[in-house]
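Protocol step 4 of 5: obtain the predicted structure for the target chain.
Materials: sequence only (see below). No template structures provided, no constraints applied. The aim of this step is simply to have a reference model before the mutagenesis design in step 5. Sequence pasted as it appears in the construct record:
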Amino acid sequence: MSCLTFKPSTGQIAVIINNQVFPAVCDPGCAVCSTINPSSCITCMTGLSLASNNFCNPCSSPCKTCSPTAPAFCLSCYGNQVLSGTACISCVSASNCLTCSSSNTSKCTTCLNGYSLSNGVCQAGCPANCIVCSSPSVCTTCASGFSATPAGVCLPCLSNCRVCSGTAQAVCLQCGFGFYLSSSGSCIACSSNCLSCNAQGCISCNTGFYISPSMTCLPNCVPPCATCSSNNPNSCSSCLLGYTYNQQSSSCTPVTTCPSSGCYACPLGYSLSNNTCVQCSTSTKCARCNPSTPSRCYTCFNGYYLNISTFACTNCP
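Step 4 output (structure tokens):
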């Protein structure tokens, strides 16, 4: 029986081709991709926009989101910047704004942690261990591990407790990541690589791990593995779409020769053209490229970004 839905933590999707189900992963930069062709993006990750060829192209700095047809046409901005028309402009750094007015970048609308807002001005001097305050002496939101009393003072919670009663710091309401709240009100540590858990086992895992049937966290298989050894995520037992399994080496190799019916999808580093997989130039780090010009990149492998003026892949910082 073929799997039709994968746990989100695995990063895998089910692709249906000719009534057959294949495990696959979306191309780099895709948040959601087609279940017919994983290289065809539907939505993109933050900082990228969906181009007409269904690839995700980077927005121009400092856009957080941008127009698909104009990467420098900003639609939203990162913190300490505000959208003015189609551009992101920075708030005045000396004002300590988190966000500011587009007509007056020195007038704050929200403040950095540890500052309070008063008539567009961020004032320093929140109480100790305070993130957000209504005045220099009254805290409304305390740092993790502290709770505000009715008077607005942040007092520490018990060990590993992140949210506790403002009137009784010994009463834990929520534990920190990697701990769960027991019936006795204490915080108990989760198993290894577990992000959240309960008395029965793990509920969610750290990035790069998935929940096993026994409710423990095991490492995700490293692509192009679809399934792998529980002891070694690089030792494949089956492969993603576009790769073939080598039983002797427990590895996956790209499918470069298409059957007579043609290819429906290609491994990373290749692009589909007339039902044939064309290899991108190996020196360019293209994940996908123009089949007629293999050195002209459309998207890049993880760890690289696309320079949209040269269509070349460059190392990320």
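Step 4 remarks: The chain has a mean pLDDT of 88. The longest strand covers residues 293-300.
Proceed to step 5.
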